[in-house]
Amino acid sequence: APKMFGNVDRRGVPMQSLVATFVVALLTFLMSIFGTQIYMFLVAASGLTGFIAWAGIAAAHYRFRKAYIAQGKSLDDLVYKAKWYPFGPIVALVLCILVIVGQDLESFHTLNWQAIGITYMSVPLFIVLYVGYKIKYHTKVIPLDQVDLTK
Known about the structure:
The protein is mainly α.
């Protein structure tokens, strides 16, 4: 189990474990009442999260190679060649964004806010987590010429 689940408060209560167990129990309970809706919510959240991850991979790939070039290095020196760089990661990023946006366009036409919320809830969650991380740890996007390429 992750280390955080072993943490206990001053009374010896593992609060993170307790909260995680509560969330799983709550989802299980809600599945018994709203089975189909909760299931669709979980499927939409996990599917959209996959495309958000692939968009991040494409953006990271593009930035890595841009940083490599910005630091005066040749892409020919890299062991792994990206045949379609820079177009490959750009196309991948654009396609991921199109899939994310087009996930449930029908709900926008009918203004079905419940379906929109269920389908797209991963996007604001990702943004909140990303911005929250940046604020909490005071990190910034590293300029291309300062990216550490040695690790």
